[in-house]
């Protein structure tokens, strides 16, 4: 195991790097107490820091908060392959390298899927799990969703306007799509390596190929395994999510044995940002209940 090293960035907290059995990973480490691991979603210019920096001060009052930057999304090095698949194999090596035995997990969208997979394959490592949209499968809504289609269009032809269109699909309150946010996302999303990684996930041919491969595989679809999640789980969702429509929550809500479900009104895909105060209250109570 390598000792964590600080990496210079412009962020308010130091970005650190650690070597793991699977490869190097970068992360933030803030606060003291039981360990709470934050796992970010996918999309152009995404980072764990941008997903969770707003709620970090509140949770760091009670937890040691680790924000993991998945490989291939522009912060941690690209490990090759499909970034959404390599993300699945990053959590346990990361925890092992930090000598952390057990964590609570908060996962946004793709990060929620990684959290569910971790809870199924290594239940002894997860105490409680919180997901934010993005899991399950649509029952009534057509697919791919509006937000995914806009993401594909940006990936195929990365213009500033296409990025703005996609960002606006992520939120209910359009005023949240500020020039600062657009510039932040544009800078990282158009980095050649990050863009190439995004095309492996959301290019139209790549996306269609992944769907075909999953349908042809003998392995069960991810949503068909959710009955195997044994840890207490809180599913959170924005009622107005245009990336992961609300009906996606029906199968996880019904099949995860110890699942609770909370819907935030007037809220899109980023519940931790758009419903910040309510999210902190609901999730904080869940994580600290019967502590």
Features:
291 residues, alpha/beta, nine-stranded mixed β-sheet, 9 strands
Overall description:
Keywords: Hydrolase. InterPro entries: AB_hydrolase_1 (IPR000073), AB_hydrolase_sf (IPR050266). This is Alpha/beta fold hydrolase. The protein has 291 residues and is of the alpha/beta class. It has one domain (5-141, 218-288): Rossmann fold (3-Layer(aba) Sandwich). The protein is 38% helix and 18% strand. The chain is built from 13 helices and nine strands. It has helices at residues 48-52, 56-60, 83-86, 91-97, 110-121, 146-156, 160-169, 179-189, 192-202, 204-216, 250-255, 271-274, 276-288, and strands at 5-7, 15-19, 24-30, 35-39, 64-69, 103-108, 126-132, 233-238, 259-264. It has a nine-stranded mixed sheet with strand order 1-2-3-5-4-6-7-8-9, sandwiched between helices. The model is unreliable at 5-11 (pLDDT under 50).
Helix and strand topology:
Elements: E1 5-7, E2 15-19, E3 24-30, E4 35-39, H1 48-52, H2 56-60, E5 64-69, H3 83-86, H4 91-97, E6 103-108, H5 110-121, E7 126-132, H6 146-156, H7 160-169, H8 179-189, H9 192-202, H10 204-216, E8 233-238, H11 250-255, E9 259-264, H12 271-274, H13 276-288
Parallel strand pairs: 4-5, 4-6, 6-7, 7-8, 8-9
Antiparallel strand pairs: 1-2, 2-3, 3-5
Helix pairs in contact: 6-7, 6-9, 9-10
